[in-house]
Write a structure and sequence with these properties.
single chain; 327 residues; alpha/beta; Rossmann fold; UDP-galactose 4-epimerase, domain 1; 7-stranded parallel β-sheet; 9 helices; binds uridine-5'-diphosphate
């Protein structure tokens, strides 16, 4: 098996992407440590791995010094709040995990001679003036807007990662993740897809922000995870976009969810949040060329699987405030 004798640390391991990564690395025979402070992560995303002999969970906040005993071959830094509600509710933690957390993990990579992949984001392009977004575009970001805590932490993350690569020769990889969906997304985190499906399941109107003409390009989680694995195993140290270039307006997306769920509710329009990007579509030419990767799952198929997942959750989840218990 590919991963035999190799150990990987996944931060944000109890989150949406982190838990899918944990599954992939376990299936390839790696020893996996999932680390999470469980502010936005959910331990239930990992419960099925608890009895696996190659799996460990460490409850820890990576903004504080990170210690892992023994050898470590790979680090995947996926700990971060990542939704508009998070940026408003936990702005300082968002800044800290992207900056201090990344610094701690780069230090760990240096000490262990481990290769590290950090999760960056299409948000580093801000409200982009170049379309579709290529990796050589520097972005159009408002540092002091509500999304600034995420965007600027991720921009700092890219800068410090390249500095450790250039100054300390650490093997680094940077993935710029575009909108991704699938099972284990948080139901009430304010993102478009869980918001629309949650509203349909509760029998509420579907809230489209602005006039719904803003675009996004949604990637199914299995495709994204495959791209990330290929990037980690490649020798390419500069940022690579991973996402699905199939672009859609948010209004059309809401209509797709209405059709999928069969809800009789209608679209209602709400004010557009500050700095909401008007258009977003990854140029994935570099990923195709360097990683021989492109997404395979059609949106209709991915959305069906995701809807089944949300339907399978206990009904009370539908009404839970994601911060109700913890803050
Ligand atoms: N959006 C919406 N209604 C909602 C939640 C989100 O119209 O209830 C819009 C949001 O304004 C944005 C798009 O859907 O234009 C995608 O939002 P999301 O938070 O999923 O991702 P991001 O803006 O970070 O790409």
């Amino acid at each position: 098996m590919e991963g035999k004798g190799k150990k990987v640390l996944i931060t944000g391991g109890a989150g949406f992407l982190g838990s899918h990564l944990a599954d992939l690395f376990i299936s390839k025979g790696f020893k996996v440590i999932a680390m999470d402070n469980l502010i936005t992560g959910d331990i239930r995303n990992l419960e099925h791995l608890f009895k696996h002999p190659d799996f460990e969970f460490h409850h820890h906040d990576v903004s504080k010094f990170v210690s892992v005993p023994g050898e470590l071959n790979y680090i995947l830094h996926f700990a971060s709040p990542a939704s508009p509600i998070d940026y408003l509710k936990i702005p300082i933690q968002t800044l800290k995990v992207g900056s201090l957390g990344t610094h701690n993990l780069l230090g760990l990579a240096l000490a262990k001679k481990a290769r590290i992949l950090v999760a960056s984001t299409s948000e580093i392009y801000g409200d982009p003036l170049v379309h579709p977004q290529t990796e050589d575009y520097w972005g159009n970001v408002n540092p002091i807007g509500p999304r600034g805590v995420y965007d600027e932490a991720k921009r700092f993350q890219e800068a410090i990662t390249m500095a450790y690569h250039r100054f300390h020769d650490v093997e680094t990889r940077i993935v710029r993740i575009f909108n991704t969906y699938g099972p284990r997304m948080r139901l009430n985190d304010g993102r478009a897809l869980p918001a629309f499906i949650g509203q349909a399941l509760r029998g509420e109107d579907i809230t489209v922000f602005g006039d719904g003409s803003q675009t996004r390009s949604f990637c199914y989680v299995a495709d994204l995870i495959d791209g990330i694995y290929r990037l980690l195993m490649s020798d390419y140290a500069e940022p690579v976009n991973i996402g699905n270039p199939q672009e859609i307006t948010i209004k059309e997306f809401a209509e797709e969810i209405i059709k999928l769920t069969g809800t009789s509710q209608k679209i209602v329009y709400k004010p557009l949040p500050a700095d909401d990007p008007k258009q977003r579509q990854p140029d994935i030419g570099l990923a195709k060329k360097t990683l021989n990767w492109e997404p395979k799952v059609e949106r209709t198929e991915g959305l069906k699987i995701t809807y089944e997942y949300f339907k399978s959750l206990p009904a009370e989840e539908l009404f839970k405030d994601p911060y109700g218990k913890k803050f």
